[in-house]
Amino acid sequence: xxxxxxxxxxxxxxxxxxxxxxxxxxxxxxxxxxxxxxxxxxxxxxxxxxxxxxxxxxxxxxxxxxxxxxxxxxxxxxxxxxxxxxxxxxxxxxxxxxxxxxxxxxxxxxxxxxxxxxxxxxxxxxxxxxxxxxxxx
Length: 137
Prior knowledge:
Elements: H1 5-20, H2 30-33, H3 46-52, E1 61-64, E2 69-72, H4 82-99, E3 113-120, E4 124-131
């Protein structure tokens, strides 16, 4: 299936995270995940999980960069981009804000707050929020 460059790049990034984490990050978890409805306290039985589990493997998502296409190597593969799309959306939003800086301003007017998170091998994750102020030069 032909997809947009933006979606292709997002799927390629997801694949890279899957490779880096040896499959711990895997957008194909949705192949089993869709069977759950936590709000209604519904979960699949072992037979349903066993049937769907072979579709969980990021290697089933086949990207063709020359054609700009994606396909799945077997039936039953589903993807969920929720684990990567939120961060991707924030990154794109920051790019838009950065590109909207008008001459004479040190930061875009719409950028009133930004957040960041960093990982440390010894200290885990820390998150902070900063407030950006528009300053006329």
